[in-house]
Amino acid sequence: MTASKTDRTKTDSIEHVSEHVIVDTPSTSKLNGFRQHTLKTIISCTGIGLHSGSKVKLTLHPAEPDTGILFKRTDVNGDKAIIPASWDNVVDTQLCTTIANDAGTSVATIEHLMAALAGCGIDNAMIEIDGPEVPVMDGSSAPFVFLIECAGTLEQDRPRRAIRIEKKIEVEEDGWYAAITPGDGFSVAFEIDFDSPVVSRQSFTIGLINGTFKRELARARTFGFLHEVEALWELGLAKGGSLENAVVVSGDKILNEDGLRFDDEFVRHKMLDAVGDLYLAGAPLIGHFHGICSGHAANNQLLRAVFADPSNWSYVELRADLTTASVGDHGLPEVTEPALAATA
Ligand SMILES: [Zn+2]
Fold first, then answer.
1. Is residue 278 over pLDDT 90?
2. One of 51, 269, 296, 330 is an active-site residue; which one?
3. Which long-range contacts (CB under 8 A, 24 or more apart) does 57-61 make?
């Protein structure tokens, strides 16, 4: 991790930090697997949308190699129904990450499902949904990981291509900072600092490899403060939000009867969000992400900054020996931007 002037200042000011670091060792420093994967079978679930409160049916379908992740609204006709899960389709990052296609068809709250797909190493899938919002389930990625594991994964006869970060890219606004730096494999470091005795300051670092996503991040739930949740309800938002699908904090108390799933569940959830949002790059990233008090907007701005300059990144083909080699060395076509190929 390279500390910039900004993050050093912020990090140094952190006292009594709840810190948990999972060190990325050389043997686990590469990405999971070298071939593309899809789902073995079709699988469905139903749930409610966090913001709409409406019942939604979600169906995960296998997809051909090089398809990427596509969303398909089954309540919308024809070509207008397909929305590729790509950073340049992000249209809103206020409460969740929403993507839309050129026809204006959108799907909201995709981040926890995207994180599960990234964490389970699913490169290609068609996600059918009969409404404008992915069901919130329990507010974490765990139900989606369970769904993917029930469907099973299928190795496909095509090498996995990753996006290697070549330069440090930083984005910053008042109160938050996010950066991605070149590195081996994909790792995430995060720091939060809330003016709440329950959440307060937490930091966590993890290398996303060999099941660490499922073990360390997938079960971390979204969270909110009671006064904020009540304000959202007044505005007709977060209608589906409840203690069934979010950790709710009021003063120095956690209102959920069973408490937290991890002592530092809050920072872990922010990392889960980052893993999901960054998977909108269109391929696994090879680099180290560092977020300080950042969220969905920062994650998307960071990807936009990365892809604004072709010299910031390159495609690499993952090899059988789990090392990476440059695309140019292996005869893959030169690609100028990480657009998803919608071949399904
Ligand atoms: Zn979230």
1. yes
2. 296
3. 57/129, 57/130, 58/113, 58/127, 58/128, 58/129, 58/134, 58/135, 59/127, 59/128, 59/129, 60/125, 60/126, 60/127, 60/128, 60/147, 60/148, 60/151, 61/125, 61/126, 61/127, 61/128
Instruction: Pick the closest to residue 119 from 99, 105, 140 (CA basis).
Output: 140
Q: How many helices (H) and strands (E) does the chain have?
A: 7, 22
Kindly state whether residues 111 and 253 are assigned to the same domain: no
* Dihedral sign from CA coordinates of 251, 295, 280, 215: negative
Matching residue, tokens 């695309």: 327
CB 218 within 8 A of CB 142: yes
- Does 296 qualify as catalytic in the annotation? yes
* C-alpha of residue 336 to centroid of ligand 1, in Å: 31
- Amino acid 32: pLDDT: 58
The answer to whether the beta carbons of residues 28 and 209 sit under 8 Å apart is yes
pLDDT one-digit tens code per residue, 199-244: 989 999 999 887 899 999 999 999 999 998 899 888 888 888 889 9
The number of residues in the chain equals: 344
- The reply to whether 184 and 326 lie within a common domain is yes
C-alpha 327 to ligand 1 mean position (Å): 33
Q: How far is the CA of 71 from the centre of ligand 1 (A)?
A: 18
- Strands 98-100 and 90-92 come out as antiparallel
> What is the residue range of 226's domain?
5-32+161-330
- Tell me whether strands 186-193 and 285-292 are parallel, antiparallel or unpaired: parallel
31-154-307 Cα angle (round to 5)? 45
Where is the domain boundary, 102, 134, 158?
158
**Cα 298 to middle of ligand 1, angstroms:** 14
Kindly state the greatest CA–CA separation across the chain: 58
Average pLDDT on 256-279 reads: 96
CATH number of the domain bearing residue 132: 3.30.230.20
Distance 271 CA to ligand 1 centre (A): 9
**Could you tell me which residue, 193 or 330, shows the higher pLDDT?**
193
Residue 298 has pLDDT above 60, yes or no: yes
